[in-house]
Amino acid sequence: MKKTGLLNQPLSCVIAGMGHMDTLCICDAGLPIPADTERIDLAIRNGVPTFLNVIDAILGELQVEGAIIASELKEKSPAMYEALMRRLSDVTVEEVPHTAFKAQSAEAAAIVRTGEFTPYANVILIAGVVF
């Protein structure tokens, strides 16, 4: 049995297989997920698990060099925007319109669905390298 870090097998497997510049999308409960993109559904009910809980777990495992968010997050959910920006303070964050975000999320190695009900609580993480 794994003792530390991510315990979710599909999520751990996707992260272990990612290379430089590959992307991983973490989303709220409402983001549409294309049928041909791998879905890792962690949602249990409203708020479980939270978007930030999942982000924290993933940031402990994945080397991130950049991120993409929907520009609407800042205006529609400012508290979530601030909390996310604190967590991503050492990487470049690109803001794009939500429609562009949805199109880019389809290219991710996987989309991780949380139980978050906060509007626009979505991020695409861009994998970096550890050397």
Mean pLDDT: 97
CATH homologous superfamily caption: RbsD-like domain
> What percent strand?
15-25%
With strands numbered from the N-terminus, the spatial order across the biggest sheet is 2-5-1-6-3-4
What is the CATH domain class? Alpha Beta
Count the E strands.
Answer: 6
Rg is 14 Å
Q: Considering DSSP H and I runs of 4 or more, what fraction of the residues is helical?
A: 25-40%
Give the topology string: H per helix, E per strand: HEEHEHHEHEE
Instruction: Give the assembly state of these chains.
Output: single chain
Low-confidence stretches: none
| Main structural class | alpha/beta
Q: First CA to last CA: what distance?
A: 28 Å
Label the overall shape. globular
What are the SSEs and their pairings?
Layout: H1 9-17, E1 23-27, E2 39-41, H2 51-59, E3 64-70, H3 72-76, H4 78-87, E4 92-96, H5 98-105, E5 111-113, E6 123-127
Parallel strand pairs: 1-5, 2-5, 3-4
Antiparallel strand pairs: 1-6, 3-6
